[in-house]
Amino acid sequence: MSNRIILLAHGSSDKRWCETFEHLATPTLNAVSDSRIAYMELAEPSLDDIVAEGVAAGVSRFTIVPLFLAAGRHLRKDVPAMIKALEESHQVHIHLAPPIGENPQLGEAIKDVVVHQLAASDQ
Fold first, then answer.
1. What confidence tens digit (pLDDT) does each residue in 40-79 have?
2. DSSP structure class, residue 101
3. What are the phi and psi torsion angles at 104 (to 5°)?
4. Nearest-CA neighbor of 45 among 54, 123, 90?
5. Is 51 exposed, middle or buried (0-12, 13-18, 19+ CB in 10 A)?
6. How far apart are the two ends of the chain, measured CA to CA in Å?
7. Which of 38, 87, 89, 116 falls 20 to 30 Å from 109 in CA-CA distance?
8. Where are the domains of the chain?
9. Cα–Cα dist 34/52, whole Å
10. Handedness of CA 21, 106, 5, 50 (dihedral sign)
11. CATH class of 3-121
12. Is the overall model pTM greater than 0.85, yes or no?
C-alpha cells in the first residue's frame, strides 16, 4: 500500500511566494518518492487536487507534512476539517504530521543559515 507525502504550504496569490516554497520543497520532492507540494488556499495545486490525483493513481494513504512554523488556527481547525472532508469524499486515510517548525532540526538549520550569513558579512 503506497503512501503519498504531501508538503502543505499555506498558499498565496503572489507567484513569487509560491516559487519560494517550491524551491524549498525541491530537495524533498527529489529525494522522497511519491511526494508532492500542495497549497491550502490561494494557489494551485490544491490539497484536493493532489489527493484526487493520488486516488486516480491508486493511492489510499496520505501523509501531510505542513510547511508551517507552528500549529495555529489553520492546523488546529481548517486543515483537519479539510482532511475529514477529503477522507469522506475519496474514501482514503490522511495522517496530519506536526508542522515542520516543531522539529528541532529546523532550529539547527536556521542557526546554520544565520552563522553562514554572519561569516559572509565578515568577509
1. 999 999 999 999 999 999 999 999 999 999 988 989 999 9
2. G
3. -60, -20
4. 54
5. buried
6. 52
7. 38
8. 3-121
9. 14
10. negative
11. alpha beta
12. yes
